[in-house]
Description:
Elements: H1 5-8, H2 31-42, E1 47-54, E2 60-72, E3 75-84, H3 86-108, E4 114-116, E5 122-125, H4 127-133, H5 137-140, H6 154-165, E6 171-179, E7 185-193
Antiparallel strand pairs: 1-2, 2-3, 4-5, 6-7
Amino acid sequence: GGVNRALGAGPGRPRGFVGGRDDVVSRPADAGAYGQAVQRRKAGEPVRVETTGLRAGGSRFEIGVRGVRMHYQGRPHLLFAARDISERKRIEEALRASEERFRGTFENAAVGIAHRDATGRYLRVNEKFCAIVGYSGEELLQKNIRDITHPNDLAATTDAFTALWQGESPNLGLEKRYVRKEGSLGWLDLVAPQYINDVNLQL
């Protein structure tokens, strides 16, 4: 077998798949998945695996490997394409850590926090917000902001959120009445910045 310059050249070349060797796996937890991929490739099935590679100098890196069986000049060959995915894995881990930090802050906040979309439907609520309005999180995710807003404050609430959504105001500040689950009234000091996430929802 052979390798191209990107995979096999230089002192930092990966050890796996060089000269027909399959010792690319350096993380024991990956050995099972890699072994299954090897069996699939022997059976002629396409292979796709992500694992940890070991360079000639001993450093580790994340590698994505795809393999297919093909025929060339009448003989069967195994064609592998490998690329360093270390940067992608680093970004994924940073995003995961950021999400965990946000979740901790969101759930443990001393104030009620609710995410809603442009229609007013609740997407995510913390325990403090549930305690304020008297509904469980599951119940609120089935409701709209209009469902718990006092009728006399509904127009002002709608106008304020419309201005926020349309970019006429960078944030929202509003005192409004709300209706608890058991029917009593309360007052909220509502503060809302505009936030657009990767699926284009206002939160």
